[in-house]
């Protein structure tokens, strides 16, 4: 089972990603991956400046990205997911869906990366994207985001 700890301190104006939604995402991803033991995941919103810096350091890309995921596998946390709220908000506006759905999509996408899935190569994408679609449909999120 997954337990997601989401730091939302960066969000202003009383905006919050619902705790209930985190529980739903954790449940559906746990079920899809058939997780047998507890995995703690740290997640947080970071500024665009910080996200750009991290993206450059870890991926060699000097631009803001929406989500970064890391497998830590230490005694406290199995993984970490970082989000750019501003980038997610922009993407939601461009795609004409809610920020909640965009962050749900990014959370599922990031969790799959933490558990070793990738989409850089066609064969990897063939494994990751159908699973991602299955989870998103269970959550009521359009998988075409």
Automatic annotation (TrEMBL):
Keywords: Cytoplasm, Endonuclease, Hydrolase, Metal-binding, Nuclease, Ribosome biogenesis, rRNA processing, Zinc. It is found in: Cytoplasm. Its cofactor is Zn(2+). InterPro entries: MetalPrtase_cat_dom_sf_prd, YbeY. Pfam families: YbeY. Gene3D superfamilies: Metalloproteases ('zincins'), catalytic domain. Its main location: cytoplasm. It comes from the Bacteria. Its EC number is 3.1.-.-. One of its GO terms (biological process) is rRNA processing. Zn(2+) binds at residues 109, 113, 119. One of its GO terms (cellular component) is cytoplasm. Binds 1 zinc ion. One of its GO terms (molecular function) is RNA endonuclease activity. Single strand-specific metallo-endoribonuclease involved in late-stage 70S ribosome quality control and in maturation of the 3' terminus of the 16S rRNA. Belongs to the endoribonuclease YbeY family. This is Endoribonuclease YbeY.
């Amino acid at each position: 089972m997954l337990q997601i700890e989401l730091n939302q301190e960066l969000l202003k104006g009383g905006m919050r990603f619902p705790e209930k939604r985190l529980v739903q995402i954790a449940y559906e991803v746990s079920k899809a991956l058939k997780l047998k033991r507890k995995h703690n995941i740290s997640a947080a919103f970071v500024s665009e400046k910080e996200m750009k810096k991290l993206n450059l350091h870890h991926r060699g890309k000097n631009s803001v990205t929406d989500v970064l995921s890391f497998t830590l596998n230490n005694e406290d946390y199995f993984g970490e997911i970082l989000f750019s709220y501003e980038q997610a908000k922009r993407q939601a506006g461009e795609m004409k869906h809610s920020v909640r759905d965009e962050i749900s999509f990014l959370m599922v996408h990031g969790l799959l990366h933490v558990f070793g899935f990738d989409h850089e190569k066609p064969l990897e994408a063939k494994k990751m994207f159908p699973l991602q679609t299955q989870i998103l449909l269970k959550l009521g999120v359009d998988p075409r985001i």
